[in-house]
Amino acid sequence: MSVFTVALRQLNATANTTAAEAQTIADNAKYGYVPSESIAILFLVLYGISTLLHIGQATFYRMWWLFPTAVLCGIGELLGWGGRLWSSSSPTVRTPFIIQISTTIIAPTPLLAATFIIFSRVVQQLGSSYSWLTPKWYTILFLPGDVIALVVQGIGGGMASTADDLAGAETGSKVMLGGIGFQFAVIIIFSILSGDFIRRYLCDQPVRGRVGSRGPLTPALKLMLAALVFSTTTLFIRSVYRIIELQDGWNGRIIHTELYFNVLDGGMVVLAIFTLNFAHPGLLLRPASTPALEKNATLQSEETGQMNVYLY
């Protein structure tokens, strides 16, 4: 037997042993696979850029409500993908798995709250007569619903991550499923109401007798509405994925397929959070009028009227 043949057999044996070891590690991993290091780094970079942009934009435009919404979403995703990066080198360790499963479930919820706030301001500028809800009621109804979904998902994530057996983890996943299902229902109701508002505005069909003026649909507001539609759609897709994933169970094919998670969870939330960077409400929405500004405008109008009287 030649030296070349012996070396070739040793290489094949080593390759088979390495493949077998890799498969054993994947089987023992909490995920059912070993998370990709390069993908985790990519998402950490993307979420880091978006979060820093949101911090700078929120500060520049003085939109402080973006900190507990868009910025909080970015921080949550950074924690989750940090856990997945840790798991890429230590796939059988429990702690990073707990971190990622809790934070990636919860993190997109605050971003949805930002959508509700932005849309309420769009309604205020275009005309509340075309909406079944006043701008104020969009926040009164939908923000608490978002908080409820957040709390339920958090409780379920905590139960699943601290469970000592599969039965306990399954119970936690059912609680998370309830929270995501409730959030999914909130998204659907919001989408129906917002879609009806846009239709009524375009057709000039007020829900009730017109109250106030009909605001112009400027290019800035068109872009803001398009951004809201796109970001809501991506979060809708992500919610559908999460519902199917949790219904399939902890040992199901969906949760054990990394590509599905990377595209339908990480990818969708990246698109949603960057959408609000590029189509930022501070740039596209008129600043809310204050009593002082309104008073000055009224006084200026009265003065202009008096001058016209004197001229004639």
Describe the structure in brief:
This protein is mainly alpha-helical. It contains 11 helices and no strands. The N and C termini lie far apart (116 Å).
Q: Could you outline the blueprint of secondary structure elements for this entry?
A:
Blueprint: H1 3-28, H2 37-61, H3 67-89, H4 94-106, H5 108-126, H6 135-162, H7 166-203, H8 219-248, H9 258-278, H10 281-284, H11 291-311
Helix pairs in contact: 2-3, 2-9, 3-4, 3-5, 4-6, 5-6, 5-7, 5-8, 6-7, 7-8, 8-9
Pfam families: RTA1
Transmembrane segments: 38-56, 63-82, 97-119, 140-160, 180-202, 259-279
Keywords: Membrane, Transmembrane, Transmembrane helix
Low-confidence stretches: 13-24, 289-312
What is Rg? 26 Å
Q: Please report the distance between the alpha carbons of the first and last residues.
A: 116 Å
Number of helices: 11
Quick one: biggest sheet? none
Q: What does it look like?
A:
There is one protein chain. This protein has 312 residues and is mainly α. The chain has a domain at 110-288. Helices cover 79% and strands 0% of the residues. The chain is built from eleven helices and no strands. It has helices at 3-28, 37-61, 67-89, 94-106, 108-126, 135-162, 166-203, 219-248, 258-278, 281-284, 291-311. Helix 2 (37-61) packs antiparallel against helix 3 (67-89) and helix 8 (219-248) runs antiparallel to helix 9 (258-278).
